[in-house]
Amino acid sequence: MQDNSNGLAIAKRAKEDRYQGHDYYLVDELLSQDHLLAREAVRAWVKQEVTPIIEAYADKAQCPTHLFKGLAEIGAFGPSLPVEYGGGGMDEIAYGVIMQELERGDSGVRSMASVQGSLVMYPIYKYGSEEQRRKYLPKLGSGEFIGCFGLTEPDHGSNPGGMVTHIKDDGDAYILNGAKMWITNSPVADIAIVWAKDEQGIVRGLIVEKDMKGFSAPEIKGKWSLRASITGELVFEDVRVPKSHVLPNIQGLKGPLSCLSKARYGIAWGAIGAALDCYDSALRYSQERIQFGKPIGQFQLIQKKLAEMITEITKAQLLVWRLGVLANEGRATPAQISMAKRNNVMMALEVAREARQIHGGMGITNEYPVMRHMMNLETVLTYEGTHDIHLLITGMDVTGLNAFV
Ligand code: TGC
Ligand code: FAD
């Protein structure tokens, strides 16, 4: 009878979350005690709350909405926003570190936090009236309210400036018509930040509440990526939005794009978390899996994969650390953020693909996190600006020539 004890023993252990971080260039020495404490807290929370359930939720294509409260408790919503407005009062590096640990668990869980903090709380904080800030931010920060961000439309994704969703003046309110597509959290959201054109064609931001008449948010089904995140549409049919719900301090496309800069920054950090989880799992598998009488990690081709993975992860870690320093000084440009988002997400996707190969057949199963990360990262490569759009942003920045006109 054949001895299959090696494969069975590894599969049994795979379900345990044995993740540990990897820091080849001692980048942790560039972090403060507060950053490291925040990371430990979120890592422990992910091990306790996310890892045990995430494969089942991804399998059923369901969002673990019960995690919203816990995310609020660990300070994942707006970590760098002021405490009095529902945020965490920390710096931009702490925000990045938290996103990294969340995405180590699952990109969809990081998405839950990114949208709430950077795309809903941030625009209300930055562009809202004091009354709007006081009304919504504490509830969003505590997870009592869930928010979503509606920019993309069925016919306007990479080119949001072409949006057709619009508002018409009607005395003390605006009448909102149109539709948004691919909106994270929309079916479970209490409020939506909606970007629409006014009668002069200027983009305005509105806070739309879920029970406003004529507003609906149907779920989009059938996703093979980000399965543990809920995505939907936003449909507006003559929705009467009081003028007090318009964000008074911003006009133009710069409004939503500046929110995207905040969220893209978090994704640049977050993607490294997914890469680290794949690398960590592959490294362990390579030491435990025996073929031809020795651990597969002893074969040069496996070592090549692992060496290249940790090299790319290390480069990405240094990139976001420097970006974080610039962000703390208020000097990180949108184009620098684009470069980091683009580089780190593709890096993570390539690491996931290599890690999948190292796991052999087991790599396609939910015994290991690798295939889930890989599928998730296909969305991360596309949302918040596609891989190619970010390349064109870098191209425009270095040449001074605009490819979008
Ligand atoms: P353009 O003329 O270049 O810019 C209009 C105004 O905006 C300013 N701006 C920015 N400001 C801050 N941050 C940025 N990243 C900015 N990008 C541009 C710009 O300076 C200008 O200001 P002003 O004062 O001159 O008016 O606009 P354009 O229409 O030519 O578009 C350029 C382009 C293609 C780069 C832009 O539209 C773009 O980034 N497209 C990608 C769209 C996108 O990223 N959509 C994401 C939707 S939200 C999402 O995916 C959430 S997923 C969340 C999750 O689940 O985690
Ligand atoms: P398109 O813009 O149609 O692009 C299709 C292809 O054409 C891409 O490869 C693109 O790179 C390429 N392309 C387009 N223009 C150019 C060009 N000028 N030059 C070269 N190539 C070009 N949006 C929100 O507003 N809020 C959300 O919460 C949100 N969550 C999302 C969640 C998920 C799961 C997904 C999948 C998307 C989400 N999005 C959200 C939408 C996301 O931002 C868009 O999918 C993305 O911006 C791309 O738009 P599109 O899908 O319409 O693709």
**Uncertain regions: pLDDT < 50 for 5+ in a row?**
none
Structural class: alpha+beta
Q: Could you say how many structural domains there are in total?
A: 3
Q: What is the CATH first-level class name of the largest domain?
A: Mainly Alpha
Sketch the major β-sheet. Answer: 4 strands, antiparallel
How would you characterize the overall build of this protein?
Helix content is 51%, strand content 13%. The protein is an alpha+beta fold and 405 residues long. It folds into three domains: 5-15 and 254-399, Butyryl-CoA Dehydrogenase, subunit A, domain 3 (Up-down Bundle), CATH 1.20.140; 27-141, Acyl-CoA dehydrogenase/oxidase, N-terminal domain (Butyryl-Coa Dehydrogenase, subunit A, domain 1); 147-245, Butyryl-CoA Dehydrogenase, subunit A, domain 2 (Beta Barrel), CATH 2.40.110. The strands form three sheets. Strands 2-3-7-6 form a four-stranded antiparallel sheet, with helices on one face. A hairpin with a 2-residue loop joins strand 8 and strand 9. Helix 5 (107-127) runs antiparallel to helix 7 (254-288) and helix 7 packs parallel to helix 9 (334-358). Bound molecules: 3-thiaglutaryl-CoA (TGC) and flavin-adenine dinucleotide (FAD). Flavin-adenine dinucleotide is lined by residues 115, 148-152, 157-158, 182-184, 226, 231, 379, 382-386, 388-389, 392, 404.
